[in-house]
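Title: [Solved] Heme exporter protein B 3D structure

Original question kept below for reference.
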Amino acid sequence: MNVANRPFEALQHETPGVLSAMVAVFSRDLRVALRQRQDLLNPLLFFVMVVALFPLGVSPEVSFLREAGAGILWVAALLSVLLSLDHLFRHDFDDGTLEQLVLQPHPLFLLVLAKTAAHWVLTGLPLVALAPVLGVMVHLDGNSIGVLCLTLLIGTPVLSLIGSIGAALTLGLRSAGVLLSLLIIPLYIPVLIFGTGTVASAAEGAPVAAYMALMGALLVLALTLAPFASAAALRISLSNG
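Solution (posted by the thread starter after getting help):
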């Protein structure tokens, strides 16, 4: 039987230990997602479409796009990650795998961290890879594109980590997508501000070390707190369900 179709309990018996359990969760999520390619392509297509259509709807002038390009790309990346969050726990909730995760002897927050890491690899990392091409489309210079990719590389894991909290809280609810957006978007604003501010400073030739330090601090804070909050939210959602 394919690993993607086997219950987590069977995988866990083959790979004992906390680290091995995290690897099992991570690899299983990758395999399951690769078999459902439409869920992977939708956020990426949305990202490309928003960036490509924005100049047509606002202004195609080079000076405007060069000034607003970082904001356009960051907003599009933020919305693309938000679009994919509903699937972070949904499939496991529907097939009962999530209950097995909660019942495991391993700390739930570490298993949630593994699932969030898989979500970032499948969603956030492709956005970072597409950013240079789309940066050229909005006439960003080479230095700005490099800084943009670096900010996305640091910022997109924060988006996934924060989003996992909202995805866990809204699990099993009707109209979860709307409620998820209302919960998560206000928490995304600091990441958006620092991400676009870093690229704007780089375009002006100003130092960006302070911005990068703040984004790094946000990443450390999210890595420290978000898995615990997501694990607690999952337990609440499952107990209420």
